[in-house]
Amino acid sequence: MQINRTGIGLIAFFLIFGAAFAVVPFLLGIDGEATAIFASIGLIWVVVAIGLALYARRARDKAAHQDQVFRTGIKGTATVRDAGSHVTVNEMPLMSLQLDLDIPGVGSRQVSHREVMPVFAADRMAPGLVLPAYFNPADPGDFILVW
Amino acid sequence: MSIATRVPAVGDAAASLSSFAAAHGLEPVPVLAAGPLTPLLVESGAGRIEPAAQGQLGDGVSGALGRLVYTRNKTFRFAVALTEVPASTPFVPRLFCVRAGRHTRDDEFYGFEARYSRLWTESVALNDRYRIAISPYQDENWLRQLFSPAFVDWLASDAPESFSFELAYGALLCSTEDADPDEAALAGLAAATAAVTRRIRRECEE
Question: What is the model's pTM?
């Protein structure tokens, strides 16, 4: 997953308005109960913004790691044994794939792999499909599937 | 007594398609259930091209031509042409060359999305008119060969107005944001689709 412009806007919205809700009532000297309510809402929004920002950073780090595996990894193949989905994330299926990996110089292994894909790609995942895969030389269990 | 002559009414896109199909030897099809082959077809829900006509779109290129209409808060109308380039999948699994600023939905605003594409901005000539998205793991050398200077010139200057194309796993969907295409517009879309199909096909053969 990766953050998009809407996501950046959401983080900015929750952060700015959350901070404003938490601080402005104090500055304006509004009575205690109202200030507490606004401050609580504001803090929750700030926490949400921080949570989204951390998730976005984790996604960015993961993407950078995947790009590195693509650039420096061993190219092999992954054959789809089984594919299915029971969950969607933002209208995209979270695919559960059973894969036969063929890693040059290492051997073969079977793994389960989960990945969010757009519908037009998920529709193509069928038993027998052979996809390129790149494996981390230091850890062949760490791989990216090129779909 | 009056003599009635059936003349396609202005604004009658179905009649235009019917006339175009008759004039170019295409077979009319009431509904073509293309399925979720490309992002635009996914956005449309069922991927129904309706009405449609099937047959030769250009030299050596067969496919379907028709209308794609769907509502996602707003109603979106496209003239579309669908062909296949199966040989493209190993070289370029996904290639979306979409008119800059085109919107295909108006009802969902998600902050996170699957990382399945990245923008390719190498061609300055195309950047003004299109947003080109490719797989994060695309071989860019192949892409540079596909986007030859002649192909870039054609896309930038001669492709029909509001033209876009989406290539996903061999399915090529070309489209214009034309709610009410006349025969000339359909002919332009068919010719452009044939040109893009042949260009991708030729590069795959090389």
Answer: 0.82
Residue with tokens 């190993």: B90
Contact B93, A117 (CB under 8 A): no
Q: Which sequence spans correspond to the domains of chain A?
A: 5-69, 74-145
pLDDT for res B4: 42
- H-type helices in B69-133, by residue range? 124-127
- Listed in sequence order, the residues at least 6 apart from B136 whose beta carbon sits closer than 8 Å to its beta carbon are A63, A66, A67, A70, B115, B116, B117, B118
Instruction: Indicate the range of A88-92, A112-116, B54-58, B149-153 predicted with least confidence.
Output: A88-92
Residue type, B34: A
Half-sphere exposure of B150 (CA within 13 A, CB side): 3
In B25-64, the residues whose Cβ lies within 8 Å of chain A are 35-39, 41-42
CB atoms B112 and A91 under 8 Å: no
Nearest to B200 by CA among B179, B160, B180, B172: B172
Q: Is the peptide bond before B51 cis (omega within 30 degrees of 0)?
A: yes
Q: Are B20 and B183 in contact (CB under 8 A)?
A: yes
Distance (Å, whole) CA A89 – CA B111: 11
**Measuring CA to CA, which residue among A40, A104, A48 is closest to residue A78?**
A104
Tens digits of residue pLDDT in A26-76: 888 887 888 889 999 999 999 999 999 999 999 899 989 988 998 899 999
| H/E run at residue B93 | none
Mean pLDDT in residue range A10-17: 94
* Contact: B114, A59; criterion CB under 8 Å: no
Question: CA–CA separation, A128 vs A116, rounded Å?
Answer: 20
> Mean pLDDT of all residues in chain B?
88
CA proximity to B28, closest of B42, B43, B15, B44: B15
**Of B93, B112, B137, which is closest to A4 when you measure between CB atoms?**
B112
Please list the residues that pair with B174 across neighbouring strands. B81, B165
